[in-house]
Amino acid sequence: MDLLTAIVLLPLAGFVVNGLLGARLGRGFVSVVGCGLPILAFAAAVRCFLVLTAAGGAPLLTTAYTWGTVGGHAFGISFWFDRLSAVMALIVTGVGSLIHVYSTGYMKDDPGYARYFAYLNLFLFFMLMLVLGRSLLVCFVGWEGVGLASYLLIGFWFEDPDKARAGKKAFITNRVGDAGFLLGMFLLYHALGTLEFDGVQAAFAGGAPAMLSADLVGILLFIGATGKSAQIPLHVWLPDAMAGPTPVSALIHAATMVTAGVYLVARLNGIYAHAPVASELIAVVGVATALFAATIAVTQTDIKKVLAWSTISQLGYMFLALGVGAYGVAVFHLYTHAFFKACLFLGAGSVIHALSGEQDIRRMGGLARRIPLTFVTFAVATAAIAGIPPLAGFFSKDEILWFAFASERGGSPLLWAVGAATALLTAFYMFRLLWLTFLSPSRMDEKTAHHVHESPATMTGVLVVLAALSAVGGFVAVPHFLSPLLPAATAAARLEEYETPLLVVSVAIAVAGLLAAALLYAQGPARADRLAARVPRLHRLLSSRYYVDELYERVITRPIQWLSDAVFLRVGDRWAIDGTLHGLAALARGAAGQLSRVQGGGVQRYVLLAALGVLISVVWVWRHV
Amino acid sequence: MDRTQFLIGLSIALFSLGLAGVIVRRNALVMLMCMELMVNAVVLSLVTVAARGQDAAGAAYVFLIFVVAAAEIAIAIPIVLLLARQRRSLDVGAYTALGG
Amino acid sequence: MSEAAFLYLFSAAAVAGALVMLVARHPMRVALGLIGTMLSLAGLYAVLGVHVIAVFQVLIYVGAVMVFMVFVIMLLDTRDPSFVARYSRLLLPGALAAAVLAALLGALLARRGPGVPWVPGAADFHLQPFSVAFLGRYWLHFELTSVLLVIVVVASIAVIKGRGGRDG
Questions:
Q1: Strand ranges inside A32-72, DSSP E
Q2: What is the CATH number of the domain that holds C96?
Q3: For residue A350, is pLDDT > 60?
Q4: Residue A559 CB burial class (10 angstroms; 0-12, 13-18, ≥19)
Q5: For position C121, what pLDDT does the model report?
Q6: Is the pLDDT assigned to residue C122 strictly greater than 60?
Q7: How close B38 gets to chain C, by Cα (Å)?
Q8: Is residue B41 in a domain?
Q9: C 1-40 residues inside an 8 A Cβ radius of B
Q10: Is some CB atom of chain A closer than 8 A to the CB atom of B97?
Q11: Residues C89 and C12 in one domain
Q12: Which of A465, A459, A242, A249 lies closest to A354 in space, CA to CA?
């Protein structure tokens, strides 16, 4: 078994071992297996990366297993390691291993320790299958699998019905998106006869093939992406997914699973290069989601929910970049986002741990001196996401905004303007979070304040590593590395002169957000609350998340429940099916009742019947013998 | 019509009358007697055909039938007696225990 | 020929006896009707030349079976509902079934043409050949009948005794 397959199978082994034996073999064993195997997978990924670069970028290919042959076409489970997969695999295994290590500290006292690590390893297995798969089919298996792992982990504390419901919501919303994905796959296979990525890219190399509408396929696959990556209209599951343990939120709902949609579009850039309508749709949905989510994040009061809406917003940025043809830049933002968002989530976890479970930022404050390491790492990550140079977020976000303005494939000032407004809001709400949690005077109650303590080294060590990556990660030229595979977007020549001014504007926006937040929240939420009181309806609209959940409840959930109850249950099940069965039974009973009248008990009747029998036999004999 | 046909025809007539008697009469003893009539009709047809042959087997056969008929009556009468005692009536309509 | 006359006479008597069986109300009269039929049949056997059988008919059937029947009729109280209402509910269907059967079989009979002409007295149905054959060739059947009669005796005692031999 070669190295490439090993990357995928090592976490699977972890799942099996921890799942079957973990509960019996104790915490130490589970930790070693649960963290060690992903670290080994990371090492294998690094080795493959070195082989790849030594070979000048020629992809590695392995066919692990031939699934089946249908109609002359063989479907195999093959893994493919090219530049894009390399970046994704390194992020998944690297950040993943760090989060596994963090979990050993965070989940220390949880009774489901072994189960947690088993699920987390299962997730890694499926995610690696997703990013390393050679064909859309393998990718889809991984796609579904991470949905499953997400469901298991969101509802990890399933005894609480709200948390279990959150898990269900995530899974079902994803499935809605998957319908689009499947339809797109069917169309592709029907037109091209292959689902393998290299085959699809080759087919689209010289323009869209006949018989296939690239736009339609593009839109269908994007629907799948909206489900997985929480874009409008399928974004509703991500804030609820915060019911899961914080490391899960960091790994799945910040760094890796939600980026699967971005990966998919980037991988199929051949299709989108010839699908202008689909690309425009992606860009518009992306930037609209970004703004939408940012406006909501401003009013959220749960520390994890702020970060969740922030994730949705940043994913919107990635789709904006994909929509205007800057595929490499989108992946670059994915890469930097993984670092600072994971750092932010894990830092939030550290805060929650320090405050013994408190998650409401209105009851925090004054933590900067009490938990300094958490504070510093959190601050670095916040600055990164706000786009303050020279941290990682600045480079990737600025590239996106530049291409949104200037790309020849759909860039426009409008897109830039919305993106810039979102950037302003991002800086604002992130620094709001920082101030309210750490820098404003304490609003904690006595008991919590007394117990505040810094997290153990397993947790803070990871925070430091991630903060460092958030700081310097931007200097790695990811788009350049990816450019042989993902052709770089071209900026319109006449707009070149705007590049530097726009750069300055980006920095100014970040700083403005910082200052606004500092001004408003330096002394706590009081000043902001007074401001909110002046626009009560707007505030209510935003804090209720634009009532989208209520809308879905009324328009989708209630009709379906009515349909299930009134039509399927009452009519279909009780009347039709049960009625048929009861009817058949009643028919049999009635017939039996009638037929039993033959045996009335009178002997003479029996003799008569016997005589009739004899008559019939005589007639028969006469006719036939 | 020759003798054989005539006698077989008589046998058919007696048999049918016996069958009708079993079905239409209400008294249990009368039913029994009608059954005896049926047996006799059959014996008549047997003798009619056997009398034309050379073999003594026919006579033996008839004799055996007589013996069996006697044995049958010897059993049937006690059964009817018991039944009549239990139901306190010879009316076949009262014997309904064989219902299904 | 006088044979033909006797044939017709005895046949008519047999049918008359059967009809009496069907219409008489008192079981004793029915028994007498049956005895009449049996005697007529004995006469028919005699006409056919099988005197042995005729004698056996009278001895066994009339002399044993019907006497037994008469005794039973005497012992039982026959004035019960079946005396008043002679016929069961199945009068019409029964009569119909019997008539159809008779018609059917009669039609079958009429179809086949006359067979081998009958010669009276050709059969070896005299007493001596009969006894020789019966106790010679058919000795097993003879023994079996005795076994059968023993079984019948035992069975009738068992039936009458019943469960403790008490009244129902």
A1: 60-70
A2: 1.20.120.1200
A3: yes
A4: exposed
A5: 54
A6: no
A7: 10
A8: yes
A9: 7, 11, 14-15, 18-19, 21-22, 27, 30-31, 34, 37-38
A10: yes
A11: yes
A12: A459
ipTM of the complex: 0.90
pLDDT-derived band at C120 (thresholds 50, 70, 90) equals: low
User: DSSP string covering A91-145, please?
Assistant: HHHHHHHHHHHHHHHHTTT-TTHHHHHHHHHHHHHHHHHHHHBSBHHHHHHHHHH
Tokens standing for A399?
């590239």
Range scoring the smallest mean pLDDT among A46-50, A274-278, A356-360: A356-360
CATH number at residue B21: 1.10.287.3510
What chain A residue is nearest to B22 in terms of C-alpha separation?
A604
Q: Which domain holds residue C159?
A: 125-168
Nearest to A602 among B19, B24, B96 (CB): B96
| pLDDT on residue A530 | 83
SS3 for A63?
Answer: strand
Q: Are residues C132 and C56 located together in one domain of the fold? A: no
Q: Is B53 an 8 Å CB contact of chain A?
A: no
Predicted TM-score (pTM) above 0.80: no
Strand, helix or coil for residue A591: helix
Which chain A residue has its CA at the smallest distance from B19's CA? A611
* Token code pair at residue A43: 């090492």
CA A186 – CA A183 distance, rounded (Å):
5
B91 bridge partner residues:
B27
CA distance B1 to chain A (A): 22
CB contact under 8 A, A618 and C90: no
What's the total number of domains in chain B?
Answer: 1
Identify the CA nearest to A269 among candidates A188, A336, A186, A205. A205
Question: Does C3 share its domain with C49?
Answer: yes
Query: Does the CB of B45 have a partner CB in chain C at under 8 Å?
Result: no
Decide if C119 is inside a domain: no
Q: Which helix (H) or strand (E) holds B18?
A: helix B3-24
The predicted pLDDT at position A196 comes to: 85
Q: What is the pLDDT of residues A545-594, one digit of tens each?
A: 888 888 888 888 888 888 888 888 888 888 888 889 999 999 999 999 88
CA angle A605, A610, A613 (to 5 degrees): 130
**A598: chain B residues, CB-CB within 8 Å:** 100
* pLDDT in the model for residue C168: 46
At residue A24, the pLDDT reads: 84
